[in-house]
User: What shape does this take?
Amino acid sequence: MLRLKQSVSFCLGLLALAAIGLAQPLPLSSAQLSKQGGGSLRYEFVNGAIILRMDDPRGNAALSIAPPRGQAHWDLSRAEVLALDIENLSPKSQMRLNMFIATGTWQERNLREATVGIGLNPGEKRTIRMPLPHEWKYAAPQGVPGIRTLDTSRISAISFQMQWPYEPARKDLVYCRLSNLRLEGPVTPQRPAYLDQYFPFIDAYGQFMHEDWPGKVRSAEDLRKAHAAELALLAESKRPAAWNRFGGWADGPQLEATGAFRTEKYEGKWYLVDPEGRLFFSHGLDVISAYNDALRVTAENRKWFAELPDDVTNAYQPTERALREKYGTSQYQSAYFRTVSRRLEAWGMNTIGNWSRPELMELGTTPYTLQLTDFNWRMPRLAASKVKFYDVFDPAYETWMKSLFAEQMQKHPIYARSINDPMCIGYFIDNELDFGNRGGRPRIVDDILRCPPEQAAKQALVDAMRQKYQTIERLNEAWGTNHASWEAMLLATDVPQNKAYEADAVAFFEKMVDRYFSLAREAIKSVAPHRLYLGARFISTDAVRPDLYNVAARHVDVLSVNIYSFSPAGFPMEEFPDVPVLIGEFHFGLLQRGMFRPSLCWAGATPEDRAHAYIRFMQGALVHPKIVGAHYFQYRDQPLTGRGDGEAYQIGFVDVTDIPYEEMWQAARQVGEHMYQYRLNGVLRNEMTPQPDAP
Assistant: This one.
């Protein structure tokens, strides 16, 4: 195992917090506390602390702390950080909790908020810290993408709730003590000096120019020195000793070896099983590529850039420049991917996750997954719907599904190779579809009724009702409609509003979803029978809808779900089908290194906070009997000014110049080194290393 001192930036982050000095306690009394939203939430105010219990996350239940009596707002403008101590009082359960601050209200439609979260093991106590997003500190000129700033002198509430609810209600889902609410790091509000000369603000390597940090790249020489130092470290590194060549548990039980990845339930827990018959937990990274989204360049924003090559017209890829200078201009990509392969082993990663480059897979050193399609917008859809879903009854859709592999093989030979490659775990089809069932009912069936008569899905719906009711009169009686004939029903666009229709809509929705997943399975198994079908990568709030997961479970080998939260430990167990589950995406971010936005899951104030979040999330996954792997999104930080949809997060294992975040890969190495013993033990512990009483 690679053993290193903590990085300079990591140490400085901790020292900065240690040097904050005197903290300013915030006044707190029982009169300031109130419950907001629905769901089950209880609280007590005991000896200056709050004992908080949440049983149901799905009603957006929140504990709100109002400003002290006589004050309309909290004034947090003269501090660097809002801090709070949290202790998980549960003796067995991992918990997650988010701290929100907000200005304005929902009622006035001017609510603006920021949130930071934490995951804690049973009995664990830790401080959650939010770097305060002051408008005066993080201001940016108009047109420049930036952080969601707040007027921190006018905070209407500080609240606590569970972001991205994906689990059902259960007793003491959260049971914790909140104490010592305080401000840390006093600052004097002042307009940043660089604002008058803000442009340019992006350097030649895609970094923010107006901030410095340890290890910031300023030249090609910096990159070459960093590369040489990393190669020396990688030369000392070996994959975890307990792994076989696939990253399976070589020291664990020997199961049937089939030459391909498969699934098996062992001692009450689901696992992947590698081609050699060893238990395999998929620990991976998404979007491993040479470079990601480019920075958009227009005539209006060229002034943003300190340096642009002469041939740049509409997009600039600074990461490519960094890689060329770091690895050499000739064949730099092959050298880069060889380094990445060595990184994965050194970091304790055994899986190349979704949207990664074939060049890395072709090295044959690490198991991988492939995405056969990520929603093909050219395929048949419902004419009367904006839902991100197909018309699965259209013959053109079925034809396309049968040609998925052929289509992908034309793009890259890795798809042909994967069919017989034992390193290929399996395939995803689509990502975070809408399915049209959010909000408690399948509204997509309403859309089908509004479609023209030639819509294949509408014809299928009418045929299904004809089979059930036999006559149009019986349908009219049940639905409260007055169609003259089945042909007239095809022409109609009205939507009934009664229980009989709603029941039929649910049944047809499930039929439609069943057809989607069955066609996907057939598409894979007819071409690659020995590869796993890994599902459609549900967004977490969809994954727990019975009309989706019960249908999907009939067809997938592994059900995949993307969970953006601080713990997956509450993923459904009793009422959920007994199938293996793969977490396709999760991540944590910070507001550091000149980045404008932290992430979907803001982990705190220091690199150590992000590393802690990573380990706790993986521990929650490892003790869950259905979860067979978790893939982190994503390998590299996103571009400073954002990708196409605006995401601009500091979430990577490497930054935009290809410099690894040591705290993250050290955390990942801890997980990879000990994950099999940890999973077998099945008990949440703060430390990953085996304990004396572990099996």
The longest strand covers residues 174-186.
